[in-house]
Every structure is written in C-alpha cells, then in structure tokens.
Design a protein that fits this description.
Helices cover 43% and strands 11% of the residues. Strands 1-2 form a two-stranded parallel ribbon. The chain is globular. The N and C termini lie far apart (46 Å). The relative contact order is 0.19.
Length: 112
C-alpha cells in the first residue's frame, strides 16, 4: 500500500525525532538540543487544555527544528501518572536518571 506523500514525510520526521531522543538519552548530543515542556511546583500553569495545546506546539517545534522533546509536568501531579510513552520516551525522568549515571551532556542543573 502506498502512503500519501505527507504521511511519508511525517513518518521520516518522527523517525528523525526518535533518533534525537535516543541521542540525548545516550549522551551523543547535549540536552541543549532538546525542548522541554515544563510545569514545576513553583510555576504558574494554565488549565489542562492550555497545557496540552502547549505540549503539541512545543512538540511540533522540536520536530521542525530537529530537536529532542521532553515533558516535565509535576504540578498538580506528574504527567506520567496519566499518560504513558508510546512511540518515544518523553518523560524528563528518563533524562534525570540517565544524567545521574553521567551520560547526558549539558544538564548539570537538573534536580530529582
């Protein structure tokens, strides 16, 4: 079955994005090549709809600018309590765990 041209392009973009995610997690490229959607305990964050819209826009920006993308939403509860990674690892905890093992470059200020 032939995929439409747009679907092929999107598939290639997602493959490249997945490679970027893995490269950050393995330490081959620095965290400075990632976009992180963040809502920390001290941040003023909007409602769920606004947050999901922001995640979608930041993810699109990451894909279009050839960057990795991670989510660090802990307020009011951690995002991973409700959503599970499917096609790629988006949880910032994966970065923190890898960084603590000394693999991720450029993330000395991440806290657990």
């Amino acid at each position: 079955v032939d995929m439409p041209k747009n679907a092929e392009t999107f598939s290639r973009l997602l493959d490249k994005h997945r490679q970027n995610q893995n490269a950050v997690l393995s330490g081959r490229i620095p965290l400075t090549r990632a976009i992180i959607a963040r809502c920390g305990m001290r941040d003023e964050c909007a409602g769920l709809g606004d947050r999901l819209f922001g995640i979608a826009l930041l993810y699109l920006g990451a894909v279009l600018t050839d960057r990795a993308f991670f989510i660090d939403y802990v307020k009011p509860k951690a995002m991973e309590n409700y959503l599970v990674p499917n096609k790629f690892e988006w949880r910032i905890g994966a970065i923190k765990d890898t960084a603590l093992r000394g693999k991720v470059k450029g993330c000395s200020n991440l806290q657990r």
